[in-house]
Structure formats: C-alpha cells, structure tokens
Automatic annotation (TrEMBL):
Subcellular location per the Swiss-Prot or TrEMBL entry: Cytoplasm; Mitochondrion outer membrane
UniProt keywords, alphabetically: Allosteric enzyme, ATP-binding, Cytoplasm, Glycolysis, Kinase, Magnesium, Metal-binding, Nucleotide-binding, Transferase
Residues reported in the UniProt entry to bind Mg(2+): 109
Binding-site list for beta-D-fructose 2,6-bisphosphate: 474, 532-536, 570, 577-579, 637, 663, 669-672, 741
NCBIfam families (UniProt xref): 6PF1K_euk (TIGR02478), PRK03202.1 (NF002872)
Protein name per Swiss-Prot or TrEMBL: ATP-dependent 6-phosphofructokinase
Regulation of this protein's activity per its record: Allosterically activated by ADP, AMP, or fructose 2,6-bisphosphate, and allosterically inhibited by ATP or citrate.
Protein's pathway: Carbohydrate degradation; glycolysis; D-glyceraldehyde 3-phosphate and glycerone phosphate from D-glucose: step 3/4
Top class in the EC scheme: transferase
Basic and acidic residues bias: start-end ranges: 766-789
Active site: residue positions: 156 (proton acceptor)
Main localisation: cytoplasm
Organism: Cephalotrichum gorgonifer
C-alpha cells in the first residue's frame, strides 16, 4: 500500500513583514512539488488553537501572484492562549486531528520562542491527550515527534544567528526612502531632523539607515554612546556644521537608551539640537511608525523568502526524531539551517545584556555583519580631519579612486566611505575622473583636470546618490596606452589604486598586473570593489548595483503584470540586461514568479520554446480567471542572437491562436536604477572601507614587496558566508570565462531549477551544452581573442 501523502503546514505569526507571502507561496508549491499536501494555518497560533476552518489545504494556483503582495495574506494574530499550556494542548490536538506532519512557522523571535516551547513540550502534550481520552494511542502514534522549522519574518532583523530576516530589507528601504525625502527639505531650510525608527531591542534599522544615508548621529540600544552622549552628539553635529554641512540628520531607534539604561527620546534629542544656548538648530522630529511595515517586498526579501521556504520544506522532510529543531538563516550569501533553540536563547541574551547594561556582550551576540556595519558607520561618518587616529607620516598614502565600466548603484557610496576613511587615517584620497580614458587624455585639462584630491564636504552628500559622480568609462588601460598610464601613476605618485566597477575593472587590473614587469610604477597595491548590475565579476557572488537593478526589474515586472488585468490573458516577454550573465534575469524571475527564464548560459532552442508555448496554451486552457495578472517570461539580452524578446512574443502570439495575447517589453537602462538600494549603499560602505584597509596594509612605496605578493592585486567579494579578498592571478587562471566575460562557475546556477519549479514550468528539452565556460588551458587563447565592447 502506498503511504499517505505527508501534510506540511505553514503559518505566519507575530508582527507582519513584507515577504511573508513569498514564504507561504514557496512552502505551498515546494511541498506540492515534492508530493506532499500543503496546508495553511490562518491567523497564526490563534488558528492552530481554533482549528476547523483555520487549517486549510492549499492548491498550487491559490498562491499565484503572492510574491507581489505586502503583509501576510493568511493573517497573523497575537494569541494569548498559546502562552498557556492549555492553549498549546488544544493546538497539539488540532494538529493531530488534521494529520499535520510538519509545521513551518514564519515569525519573529516571540513566535519562534513559542514554537520552541511547543516543541519541547510536545511529548508531554501528546501523552496528556491520550491520558485524558481526547485522542487514542493509535491516533497519536504517527505524531510522536513534532516536526517544526522556523523562518524569521521580522522587520527588526532581531534574530541572532542570521544576517537578515525576511522583511528587514524592505523595511530598511522604506526608512531610507523617507530619510532621503526628509534630507531634501532639511537641506533647503538648513534644518535638523530627528527620525525615530522601529526597533525595541534591536538597532539594526537605525544602524543600517544611518550607514545608508550618512546620518550625522545614531542611537541604538546595543551600543549607547559615551557617558555624556549629549556632549558627544552636539560636538559631532557642531563639527559637521563647521565643515559646511547644511543639514543634520539624527536617527534614533525606538529602544534607544543611555549607558545607565535610561530611555533616550526623540524629543530630548530635538531639545538639545534646538537649545538656544547651544546649537540653535531649527529641529523637527519625525516618527516613521507603521509605514516601515508597509508595501511590497523588495527583491532581496522575495529571494530570501522563496529560498528559505524551499529550504524549510526540505528540512522538514529530512528531519528525523534525532535532528535538533532548526530555523533557516542566511549568512552573507548562504542559506543555512541553524539550531532554533540556540538562536532563541542568544536573541533573549541580547535583550538581557542590554537590560543588564552589558553592552559589549550585546554587540557580541549580534551577528558579525552588525558589528562590522557599526564600525563602518563610525568610520564613514565620524570623520576627524584634524585629530583622530592617524597613521605615521611615513605611512600616509596617496590613494587613487577610479570607476571603470557602466555606472552601478552604490559606486558613490563606496567612494564617500573610502574617502572618509582615508581622511580619518591621514591618507590622501585622489579622484580620477572618467576612468582610464579620463586619466590618459584629460589629466592636464584646466581648470580641474581629471586628477584631483577629494574634499570631504563634496563627497559627504553622496551616500544615496545614483550614477557615478566622478564619471566612469569602459576603456581599458591597454587601449588608453599602458605606457601613458604607467607614467601618470608615477607622475602623480599614486601609492595605490582603488577601482570600483564591473568586468572592465577586472580586465583593467589584469592588464595592469601583467604589465608590471615592463612598468615598475605599476607595482602598487590595486583593489577592485565589484560594481555592476550584471554581477559577473569573478571572485564575488555579489556586486554593488545588482540589488538596485533587481529592485527596478521586479517593480517594472509587477507593473507590467498588473497592466494585463483588463484583458486577463496576456503573456509578457521582458528583455533584461546582464551581458552574458543570466544572473539578473534569473533572480528577477525568482522575485516575480516568472513562467520561464532564458539565460545566455543555457541558450534558447526551438524545442525549448515549443515546450514553453505548449505549456502556456495548457495554462490558459485551464485558467478560470482566478488571477487577472499577466504571465511573465524573462529573456536576457544575450540569451540568443536569433530568439529575441520580440521574436519570442511574436511566436507566442502566432501560436496562441487568439486564445491569449503576448507583448514584448524592454526596460533598458531603467535597470541601472535611480536611487541605489540601501543594501547596495550599506555594502558599499562596508566593503570600501575593507578595501582601503587592505591597501593600507601594504604601506607606502612598497614596490618590491608588492610585486611578489599575490594579494597586491585583489578582488573583494562575498563568497558563501564570508567576505574575502581573492588574488587576481588566481581568478584569472581558474575562474574567468574571458570570451563570455563572466566567472566560469556561476554560484546562482542552482536557482534556475527553483524558478522553474515554483513557476510551474514543466521539464523542457535542455539545449545541448553550450560552451558555457572555457577550460583553464583555453584561457590564454580566449584572452587574445577577446573583443572589448
Ligand atoms: P513576534 O513573533 O513578531 O516577535 P510576538 O512576540 O507578538 O511577535 O509573538 C507572536 C505570538 O507568538 C504570540 O501572540 C504568542 O501566541 C506566541 N508566543 C510568543 N512568545 C511566546 C512564548 N514565550 N510562549 C508561547 N507562545 C509565545
């Protein structure tokens, strides 16, 4: 006899957060895909206690379009009954009566604490249900162990053990958007604003919005400032004003306290700034409140909720009675399972440590990125031009900043942070305008020239600026003239080069590195911070600008999808950028629930198109108009020379035989984005400072040391769960597909299957393997033949 299908339930609990619907969609569809029945528990623990209609089986089509919806569509509630054992007893009974084998709970630390308690009590609860005759021994037999997995949905990002919770980056986006608006008016009137953001025990939103917007001062619960915070804040603000700043922004977490544990209020801060005896600033208070929870999820949260939902289903299916209960976390770029009990305990410890005024411990218990960002904030904002911790005069370096390639979100933020750090340490940060082309051809142009020192006030306003303020250019040093570049490096006495850019920046450093024998002046440390929407730089799984681009694409797709609601039956074929890397097409496909994604790595064949068109015909035949939104196919601009978005749309139209319509659509340069996303801005700050610190470690005029040190030319990157520097020589030799201008191994390749599974795309004939990567021995040849666009 076939064993009955496993029943997997999902619920959302506690405060709602953007992305919760993405979790539900992923769990429901993945469960069905793996041959299970999917259930939703409505209204959080309340639904579990109430049972009946609150526990409902879900079909595949019922979660269609949920990625683009904010809040949680299956409801959430605060449930008093679940705090009591009696309530949890009823909940256990309802689960068993409904035959639920496993429960996936998405919620904040409260909900997961409840889940942990439920799990530890479970055997006792089941025993009691039998002892009191509510259930029979046979009935409970298959449910001796509670199989639960947690996913953290919370806008506060307050769970230990994970870098991000589902909803945190969406909330951060809202906060930064508001601060950006406020900055404009603050600047106009030369005002000060005190902005209160959410976070009772966790200062993540305040800290990250401080980093992303370059706020003058922040207050977070984990790290109260010095004993006399009043004097410290006023002196920082005064210093910034003296340097010429017209606006003052102070961000305060709602749980901000001083070193004695006393609450610091926004009004108190305002009174200080406005003090007629002191700073005399025209100061206003803005409390952001619930707008922070609102809106749809940003691309990152859609990715996170989807991947964590998928992982949670796998985790419950793999769990044995011996496996410790886990929750799904993300560390840097890696989805991992972690012990739920430990995370709940550590999270409580943070709150306890804050209450006990043990702030060092509170910071320690937060994840690694938190502390790193805190340091970045202090280094990039608390700039001391005169005093501060300077390096010895003999170690002061002239560090040149250059952008190479197309503009990408976060480039300016990276420069701002790098410059601030340099100035604080006593180095001289120097701008090279318009890339290598600018350096080679306009270095002597009056009045400013292409090479000049940065000024702090000038860059301080760049935290949230899109584009590239110092200009950028695709030209490679070999095309500008290697000798000219080498001579200019010597003439300007550059001690190091900090490059921000995409594949061209990578290629440029490769050329400079290889020219070192011929031109000794090039024996200086060079560090690349990858910045390109295509995310195709070897040595990293993330580049600045890619998150901004994904947000733009996801918003664009949402709008396009909705525009179909009048006709109901429409397919859109959307062409994405990305060069020969299918990264953004795939990730955008994940974020909008695309029916198919076409990438250059895989290519497009007629058989594939035929399978997809047949599938669409089938879908529209069965569709009873439950959802009005259109369906989306995403095609990377270089997926095929022949099957363009337009041609694919034409083929579909022809085949649809008027049963449905199709349109092609090209967002083009919209994808580069306007204002960069907070994630790009925050990572820009953190990574840029790390780059300068790396450069700094070589010291000045270290030619001989540099020449033989592979780490003297590096790419900084996020790989798996770590931030790493990888030597250029290693990347060039082992991980660069030169003809296709991308890494040989694409870290995101596994995501394509998930897009297909969750988008309901049936298996299709895979194209013959294209030469998607080149072997190391072919590399040199590839390089020789490489053409530069
Ligand atoms: P969040 O999950 O966003 O932190 P809450 O703290 O309000 O939100 O928790 C949501 C629900 O989880 C509560 O209403 C309650 O039903 C349950 N819960 C929270 N903490 C516990 C606990 N210590 N024991 C049992 N249930 C709890």
């Amino acid at each position: 006899m076939e064993s009955p299908k496993k029943k997997i339930a999902v619920m959302t609990s506690g405060g709602d957060s953007p992305g919760m619907n993405g979790i539900v969609r992923a769990v429901v569809r993945m469960a069905i895909h793996l041959g299970c029945d999917a259930y939703c528990v409505y209204e959080g623990y309340e639904g579990l206690v109430q049972g009946g209609k609150y526990i409902r089986q879900m079909e595949w089509h019922e979660v269609r379009g949920w990625l683009s919806e904010g809040g949680t569509l299956i409801g959430t509630a605060r449930c008093k009954a679940f705090f009591e054992r009696a309530g949890r007893l009823v909940a256990a009974k309802n689960m068993i009566l409904n035959g639920i084998d496993a429960l996936i709970i998405a919620g904040g630390d409260g909900s997961l604490t409840g889940a942990d308690k439920f799990r530890s009590e479970w055997p006792g609860l089941v025993e009691e249900l039998v002892a009191t005759g509510q259930l029979t021994a046979e009935q409970v037999e298959p449910y001796k162990h509670l199989n639960i997995v947690g996913i953290v949905g919370s806008i506060d990002n307050d769970m230990s053990g994970t870098d991000a919770t589902v909803g945190a980056y969406s909330a951060l986006s809202r906060v930064c958007e508001m601060v950006d608006y406020i900055e404009a008016t603050a600047y106009s009137h030369s005002r000060a604003f005190v902005i209160e953001v959410m976070g009772r025990h966790c200062g993540w939103l305040a800290l990250m919005s401080g980093v992303a917007t370059g706020a003058d001062f922040i207050f977070i619960p984990e790290r109260p400032r010095s004993d006399d915070w009043q004097a410290e804040m006023c002196s920082t603000v005064r210093r910034h004003r003296k340097l010429g700043k017209r606006k003052t922004i102070v961000i305060i977490a709602e749980g901000a306290i001083d070193k004695e544990g006393n609450k610091i209020t926004a009004n108190e801060v305002k009174d200080l700034l406005a003090d007629p005896e002191g700073l005399k600033l025209d100061t206003r208070v803005t409390t952001l409140g619930h707008v922070q929870r609102g809106g749809t999820a940003v691309a990152y949260d859609r990715m996170l909720s989807t991947l964590q939902g998928v992982e949670a289903v796998k985790a419950v299916l793999e769990a044995t009675p011996e496996t410790p209960t886990c929750f799904i976390a993300i560390n840097e770029n890696k989805i991992v399972r972690k012990n739920l009990m430990e995370a709940v305990r550590d999270t409580k410890e943070v709150a306890n440590a804050v209450m006990a005024k043990d702030f060092a411990k509170a910071m320690d218990l937060r994840d690694h990125e938190f502390l790193d960002q805190y340091k970045s904030y202090i280094m990039s904002t608390n700039v001391h031009l005169e005093d501060g911790e300077k390096v010895a005069d003999a170690d002061k370096m002239r560090i040149a900043f250059i952008n190479v390639g197309a503009p990408a979100g976060g480039m300016n933020a990276a420069i701002r942070a790098g410059v601030a750090y340099c100035l604080s340490r006593g180095h001289e940060p120097i701008a090279i305008h318009n890339g290598f082309a600018g350096l080679a051809r306009h270095h002597a142009d009056a009045p400013l020239g292409a090479v000049r020192s940065f000024d702090w006030l000038e860059v301080d306003g760049w935290a949230s600026k899109g584009g590239s303020e110092i200009g950028t250019n695709r030209e490679l040093p070999a095309d500008s003239g290697m000798e000219i570049i080498a001579n200019l490096v010597e003439e300007y006495r550059f001690d190091a080069l900090f490059l921000i850019g995409g594949f061209e920046a990578f290629h440029a450093v490769s050329q400079l590195r290889q020219a070192r024998d011929e031109f000794p002046s090039l024996c200086i440390p060079m560090c690349i911070l990858p910045a390109t929407i295509s995310n195709n730089v070897p040595g990293t799984e993330y580049s600045l600008g890619s998150d901004t681009c994904l947000n733009e694409l996801v918003n664009y797709c949402d709008k396009i999808k909705q525009s179909a609601s009048a006709t109901r039956r429409r397919v859109f074929v959307i062409e994405t950028q990305g060069g020969k890397s299918g990264y953004i097409a795939t990730l955008a496909g994940l974020g909008v629930g695309a029916s198919a994604v076409y990438t250059p790595e895989e290519g497009i064949t007629l058989d594939m198109l035929a399978a997809d068109v047949n599938h669409l015909k089938d879908v529209f035949k069965k569709d009873r108009g439950q959802s009005r939104a259109g369906r989306l196919l995403l095609v990377n601009e270089k997926a095929s020379k022949v099957y363009t978005a337009k041609l694919i749309a034409d083929i579909i139209r022809e085949e649809a035989n008027e049963r449905f319509e199709s349109r092609d659509s090209i967002p083009g340069h919209v994808q580069q984005g306007g204002v960069p996303s907070p994630m790009d801005r925050c990572r820009a700050v953190r990574l840029a400072i790390k780059c300068i610190q790396h450069i700094e470690s070589f010291g000045r005029r270290a030619q001989n040391k540099v020449k033989h040190d592979p780490y003297s030319t590096v790419v900084i990157g996020i790989k798996g769960a770590s931030v790493v520097f990888t030597p250029m020589a290693e990347l060039e030799a082992t991980d660069t597909d030169w003809p296709n201008r991308r890494p040989i191994s694409s870290h995101w390749a596994g995501l394509r299957d998930i897009v297909d599974i969750l988008g309901g795309r049936p298996p299709y004939p895979k194209p013959e393997r294209k030469l998607s990567g080149v072997r190391a021995k072919d590399m040199k040849r590839g390089l020789d033949h490489m053409s530069v666009e």
